[in-house]
């Protein structure tokens, strides 16, 4: 004999809405964790602010070093060699340790030559060294 219940009997069913909410939460969590695990490789830069830009105008003229395709060095458009480069950088950075130095190299030049020049500049006391592009020889790349 079956005894009746005043509560109507319902079939069990799986609720989809909470399941979807949990799946979206897990997806977002995995995405955030995977993004946090990436190592960002950046170059540190110190960009001038408006006040710093005015101060830069009052500083000494930057030293421009260029290297042509044959490896010849020109400092401020005057041909020099590596020993003269060391002496000139030492002479210019002694009164002004924050002197900006720009190295411009021809794309056909060797990497080792440019690094050798960078080493000489750093050993002579140049701390604010930047690399510039040689716009004259864009088509030779």
Helix content: 25-40%
Number of H/I helices: 4
Class of the domain at 60-140 in CATH? Alpha Beta
Q: Order of strands side by side in the largest beta sheet? A: 3-2-1-4-5
Please state the CA-atom Rg, rounded to the nearest Å: 32 Å
Unreliable residue stretches: none
The best one-word shape is rod-shaped
CATH architecture of the domain at 60-140: 2-Layer Sandwich
Approximately what portion of the residues adopt beta-strand conformation?
15-25%
Oligomeric form: single chain
Description:
This protein is an alpha/beta fold. It has a domain at 60-140: 2-Layer Sandwich (Nucleotidyltransferase, domain 5), CATH 3.30.420. The chain is built from four helices and five strands. The protein has helices at residues 16-37, 50-58, 82-93, 111-123; strands spanning 63-67, 73-75, 78-80, 100-105, 128-132. It has a five-stranded mixed sheet, with helices on one face. Strand 2 and strand 3 form a beta hairpin. Helix 3 (82-93) packs parallel to helix 4 (111-123). The chain starts with 15 loop residues before the first helix and ends in a 9-residue tail after the last strand. The model has no long low-confidence stretch (mean pLDDT 78).
